[in-house]
Design goal:
Strand content: 5-15%
Helix content: 25-40%
Number of domains: 1
Distance between the termini: 41 Å
CATH superfamily: Winged helix-like DNA-binding domain superfamily/Winged helix DNA-binding domain
Strand order of the largest sheet: 1-2
CATH architecture: Orthogonal Bundle
Radius of gyration: 15 Å
Oligomer: single chain
């Protein structure tokens, strides 16, 4: 299963990333008795369609331009779906960018490092991260 963020910057079968994320989301929501509605699933797919952070209005635009969308998706609909996905731990919010990125390990607490120079995002298991504290 392609879930390691290191592969995001190399050639790979990106559909496999999306399918793995959707399978994990369905399993997690089933276990928690949470409803992964079609709109929530579409928002998750849109976020996973690239390995870069997306703002809510970018998600709205991409969903509205999609071949399967017959009409423009409204921002409140997307914001409600985003909140559900955040609550379930399926996506992360990057506050400094006001953007969202898919979470490959929803049951593990992760730390996200973002480079504003290269726009690279690196996720790391919080339990294994060594912190250097100033003295």
């Amino acid at each position: 299963m392609l879930t390691n963020s290191r592969i995001a910057y190399h050639r790979h079968d990106h559909k496999r990333c999306i399918n793995a994320a959707l399978c994990r989301a369905r399993e997690l929501c089933d276990a928690r008795k949470a409803r992964l509605t079609p709109i929530r699933e579409t928002v998750l797919k849109t976020i996973w369609a690239s390995h870069r952070p997306l703002g809510a209005y970018e998600i709205v635009d991409q969903m509205s331009q999609s071949e399967t969308s017959a009409h423009r998706v409204l921002p409140p609909t997307v914001y409600r779906a985003i909140q559900f996905l955040l609550d379930q731990g399926l996506i992360h919010r990057l506050s400094s960018l006001n953007a969202y990125i898919g979470c490959p390990f929803p049951v593990i607490t992760t730390v996200i490092f973002f480079s504003s120079v290269s726009n690279a995002v690196q996720r790391q298991n919080a339990a294994t991260t060594r912190w250097i504290m100033p003295s």
